[in-house]
């Protein structure tokens, strides 16, 4: 049932994005290449071979995009810093890029001038390509010190103004999609070991950066350092079945617990250690494919988060399913479960993203119980569409946001310590291996137009009203928001259609005029030759 009420005073409302997905300018002003530049430049890696080379041109449109944030009246903006933009090779002692540093200084200053709090992620997947080529990226323990140097540079340059730092955004995807399935950069398929090794180094890196901030910067800058973990919710198919309940628990532990458990409880979840250890033994391996932390490392890692960022999009039903013993091991065969969906769940966009709001409340309560009710910021939550035609009147996104945000309100009443919400995302942007085929934005980006203009969708107007009311005050008012948002998007649609026509005419003009001019010159030359021949 829908719950009408408002959020506590001081609750933070925001939107998010990431560097590679929006900035573009991949090789401009001294930026070094990232693993995503290298990955997308190989044919067959991304849908339609699209790249983020120019993305949303966000590098050149900071002021325009801050204007959109002002329109929404958000409290904060979550964005990431591109490591190779400020440190081209990823190695501090080799080279710093002052133009890159200036770009982020200008961005932060512009946000603060407009009373928008910057929440900054140090890593949203764009590792410097040099570190991948030289050392194998997150497979190599040397990343810990290289990343710590980079983080300390960011604290030094921006920490006087940035008070909310995220070390890693969705490290699960970095490990599993980058080093297990190869769907994401760097595109490695190191089945059964690669993801666990990458995650192990990322967790140690996170802890080192937290300690660096704690000892060197905290007393002076008074900020916070956390991590952003993305996970679905796993619900047992049969709540009365012990095997299904245990399978649902494994689903959460192999996604969220993999990273959260070491940080909040000092070690990997017992169920991960047991299952991966047993499967490794069945393969005849002397040690588990899941690395281990020493006693000192466990103590060092435990407690290294001032807040927990949570990304959440969807839910699955889960049941026990034993995988046959295979010599080819994988992360996905390690947890002995199958995922199902309810055909009645709405699927507004791609096949993986079902709208199941009640799963969010259960996830947030799980976090409260499992990790001692930490301070939580929702760092990513939203829905995409993958339709070819322009969709500004996105009532399915309105329903999604309304449902999921309402579950946060219920979770607050359950006693969960949530202090902020970030809608994902501000703009339609480059969606990794899906290219531009999926659109998460509250603002439509016209990628075909030269200056990539942004247009508000109905969901932008609706979200603005949630922010203004700080929740859902009463049924009548909330019902009016929907109609007002739909009216606004219809007008915007007409504007977009007009702009598209103008753009088309400009393109035609660009082609036709030079062609006509060239033809005129050719005809003139031919006539001149004929004239000269006749008079000779």
Automatic annotation (TrEMBL):
Supply the EC number(s): 3.2.1.21, 3.2.1.45, 3.2.1.46
Q: Which InterPro entries match?
A: GH, GH_1_N_CS, Glyco_hydro_1, Glyco_hydro_1_AS
Q: Name one GO molecular function term.
A: beta-glucosidase activity
**What does the record give as the reaction this protein catalyses?**
beta-D-galactosyl-(1<->1')-N-octadecanoylsphing-4-enine + H2O = N-octadecanoylsphing-4-enine + D-galactose; a beta-D-galactosyl-(1<->1')-N-acylsphing-4-enine + H2O = an N-acylsphing-4-enine + D-galactose; beta-D-galactosyl-(1<->1)-sphing-4-enine + H2O = sphing-4-enine + D-galactose; beta-D-glucosyl-(1<->1)-sphing-4-enine + H2O = sphing-4-enine + D-glucose
Q: Which Pfam families match?
A: Glyco_hydro_1
Keyword Transmembrane present in the record's keywords: the answer is yes
List this protein's GO terms for biological process: carbohydrate catabolic process
Cited PANTHER family: GLYCOSYL HYDROLASE (PTHR10353), LACTASE-LIKE PROTEIN (PTHR10353:SF336)
What this protein is called in its record is Cytosolic beta-glucosidase
């Amino acid at each position: 049932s829908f719950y009408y009420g408002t959020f506590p005073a001081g609750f933070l409302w925001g939107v998010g994005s990431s560097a590679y997905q929006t900035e573009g300018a991949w090789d401009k002003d001294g930026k070094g290449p990232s693993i995503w530049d290298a990955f997308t430049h190989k044919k067959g890696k991304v849908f339609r071979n699209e790249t983020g080379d120019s993305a949303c041109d966000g590098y050149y449109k900071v002021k325009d995009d801050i204007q959109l944030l002002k329109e929404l009246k958000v409290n904060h903006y979550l964005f990431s810093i591109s490591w190779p933009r400020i440190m081209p090779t990823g190695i501090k002692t080799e080279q710093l890029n002052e133009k890159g540093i200036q770009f982020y200084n200008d961005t932060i200053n512009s946000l603060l001038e407009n009373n928008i709090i910057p929440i900054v992620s140090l890593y949203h997947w764009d590792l410097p390509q040099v570190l991948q080529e030289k050392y194998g990226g997150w497979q190599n323990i040397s990343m810990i010190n290289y990343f710590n140097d980079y983080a300390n540079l960011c604290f030094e340059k921006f920490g006087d103004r940035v008070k909310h730092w995220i070390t890693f955004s969705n490290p699960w995807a970095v490990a599993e999609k980058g080093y297990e399935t190869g769907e994401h950069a760097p595109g490695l398929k190191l089945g059964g070991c690669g993801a666990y090794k990458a995650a192990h180094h990322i967790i140690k890196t996170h802890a080192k950066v937290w300690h660096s901030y704690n000892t060197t910067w905290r007393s002076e800058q008074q900020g916070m350092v956390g991590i952003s973990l993305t996970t679905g919710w796993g619900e047992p198919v049969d709540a009365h079945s012990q095997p299904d309940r245990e399978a649902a628990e494994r689903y959460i532990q192999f996604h969220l617990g993999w990273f959260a458990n070491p940080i909040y409880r000092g070690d990997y979840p017992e169920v991960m250690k047991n299952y991966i250890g047993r499967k490794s033994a069945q393969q005849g391996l002397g040690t588990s494919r899941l690395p281990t932390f020493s006693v000192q490392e466990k103590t060092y890692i435990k407690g290294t988060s001032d807040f927990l960022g949570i990304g959440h999009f969807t839910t699955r039903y889960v049941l026990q399913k034993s995988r046959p013993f295979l010599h080819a091991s994988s992360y996905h065969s390690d947890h002995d479960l199958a995922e199902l969906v309810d055909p009645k769940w709405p699927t507004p966009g791609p096949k993986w993203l079902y709208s199941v709001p009640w799963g969010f409340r259960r996830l947030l309560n799980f976090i409260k119980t499992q990790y001692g009710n930490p301070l939580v910021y929702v760092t990513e939550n939203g829905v995409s569409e993958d339709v070819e035609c322009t969709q500004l009147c996105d009532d399915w996104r309105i329903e999604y946001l309304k449902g999921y945000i309402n579950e946060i309100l219920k979770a607050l009443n359950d006693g969960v310590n949530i202090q902020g919400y970030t809608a994902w995302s501000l703009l339609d942007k480059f969606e990794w291996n899906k290219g531009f085929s999926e659109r998460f934005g509250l603002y439509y980006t016209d990628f075909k137009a030269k200056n990539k203009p942004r247009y508000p969708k109905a969901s932008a107007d609706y979200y603005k009203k949630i922010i203004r009311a700080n929740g859902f005050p009463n049924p009548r008012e909330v019902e009016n928001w929907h109609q007002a948002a739909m009216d606004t998007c219809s007008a915007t649609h007409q504007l977009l259609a007009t702009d598209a026509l103008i753009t088309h005419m400009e393109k035609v003009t660009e082609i036709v005029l030079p062609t006509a001019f060239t033809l005129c010159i050719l005809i003139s030359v031919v006539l001149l030759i004929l004239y000269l021949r006749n008079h000779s």
